[in-house]
Amino acid sequence: MSEMTRQKMQELFKATASVDSVDGERKFKEYAQALTTPILQEIKLRSVVRELFAVEMLGPGAQAVYPVADDFDVPVWVLPGLGY
After folding, report:
1. How far apart are CA 60 and CA 57, in angstroms?
2. What is the pLDDT of residues 22-56, one digit of tens each?
3. Which of 11, 19, 22, 76 is the most buried (most CB within 10 A)?
4. Could you tell me the CA-to-CA distances from 78 to 40, 52, 54, 66 in Å, in that order?
5. pTM of structure
6. In which domain, by residue range, is 22 found?
């Protein structure tokens, strides 16, 4: 994380202290949104589940729908939220 990004994150975090105000709530949401990218990057790097299964990046609003083969001898179960 660059120094400028780190400073901006610190400023956003400080602004969340007054979450009871309208501006504080807006800053809290902005801070949470700013954390999304670094958190997702860490998940991508460290998630064991991503090593076990193929990762397919879906666009916004896309549905993860895949046909199920009917020639399995043993049923296969997948937990979509596993690892998160």
Report:
1. 10
2. 787 888 888 888 888 888 888 777 777 777 777 78
3. 19
4. 21, 11, 12, 12
5. 0.42
6. 3-52
